């Protein structure tokens, strides 16, 4: 933000009785603290990336493994990349892949095998991959 925009935002925050405005994203936190005057300070801090949940793209029976196999497609602890198949949804005779939306490590499975789920149902926790310090 530019100085004029920060001053305006600080004035609006003061007028509304807001002394702190904090916005958090996957890898950054922006915090604006108004002092009640005509200035605000900006503080940017690296925040840990939160876990996310893989959701059902359509309604169907959630399968941890292919119907002809017994090994889970993505057991807990498995590191996956965006687009990796982490489960399946069975819709009658059709089997649709459930894909990881981003790189991560498989956490808890939230739904038992062969459970009927609706669109958007949380299926699997996806933990962030720890980045090595360079």
Structural class: mainly beta
Q: Widest sheet: strand order?
A: 4-11-9-6
What count of structural domains? 2
CATH architecture field of the largest domain: Beta Barrel
CATH class of the largest domain: Mainly Beta
End-to-end distance: 29 Å
Structural description of this entry:
The protein is mainly beta. It has one helix spanning 3-15; strands at 20-24, 29-34, 40-45, 52-55, 60-63, 79-80, 85-91, 94-99, 104-109, 115-117, 122-127. It has two domains: 3-45, no CATH class; 52-127, RNA polymerase II/Efflux pump adaptor protein, barrel-sandwich hybrid domain (OB fold (Dihydrolipoamide Acetyltransferase, E2P), Beta Barrel). It is built from one helix and eleven strands, in the order H-E-E-E-E-E-E-E-E-E-E-E. The strands form three sheets. Strands 4-11-9-6 form a four-stranded antiparallel β-sheet, with no helix packed on it. The longest helix has 13 residues, at 3-15. The model is unreliable at 37-43 (pLDDT under 50).
């Amino acid at each position: 933000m530019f100085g004029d925009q920060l001053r305006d935002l600080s004035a609006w925050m003061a007028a509304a009785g807001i002394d702190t405005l904090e916005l958090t994203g996957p890898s950054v936190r922006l915090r604006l603290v108004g002092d009640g005057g005509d200035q605000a300070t900006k503080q940017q801090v690296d925040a840990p990336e939160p876990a996310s949940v893989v959701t059902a793209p359509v309604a169907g029976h959630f399968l941890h493994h292919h119907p002809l196999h017994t090994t889970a497609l993505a057991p807990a602890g498995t590191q996956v990349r965006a687009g990796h198949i982490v489960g399946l949804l069975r819709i009658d005779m059709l089997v649709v892949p459930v894909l990881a939306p981003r790189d991560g490590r498989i956490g808890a499975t939230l739904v038992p095998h062969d459970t009927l789920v609706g669109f958007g149902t949380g299926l699997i926790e996806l933990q962030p991959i720890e980045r090595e310090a360079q």
